[in-house]
Amino acid sequence: MANGLRFRTAQDLFSACPAVAQDMKAAPTDQPSIEFCRALLAGRVPEEAITFCAYLLPERAAIWWAHECLGNLAELLGDRDLELLALVGDWVGEPGNPDHRAAVAQAVEVPPVTPVSWIALAAGWRDGGSVADQVAAGFPTAHAVSAGILAGLARVSLADRFAVLSAFVEMGVQMAEMETQQQSADAF
Fold it and tell me: Is the pLDDT of residue 175 over 90?
């Protein structure tokens, strides 16, 4: 399955998305992307597997993945984050809906200070924000997705953190594989 991914190897991803090198310390290899991601999870800084997945997934899929990850942490989120999570969920379900676009656009006017505000920022950029907005902010959508998931993960107890991190990475890997299958089906 890994050969059909958007980025066949970790090196392919790093070459196509140079910003990932600013978000990760790990050096890319010629390993297939999924193997590299799992090696990161088993490595010294397993959180880098989250960052790698954020760049590996297409932007809309990455935002949905972040939505799902943070939805699993709902009991650790405040009321404003839960409201933003619902907005992001609506946006992913119907990105062309003007009501959802307007709600996300309004939500991103506030600087990202909570896990879901990072995801709302990513959705706002993906939806209507320009590439110039992303460059001016200094990072791409994948950075915001990674920051949101990692900020949520920081709220998980130390005893449970690696298990939750592993589940999130596996969800990201599965989404990458599903995206590949969908792209293959769309090609026919």
Answer: yes
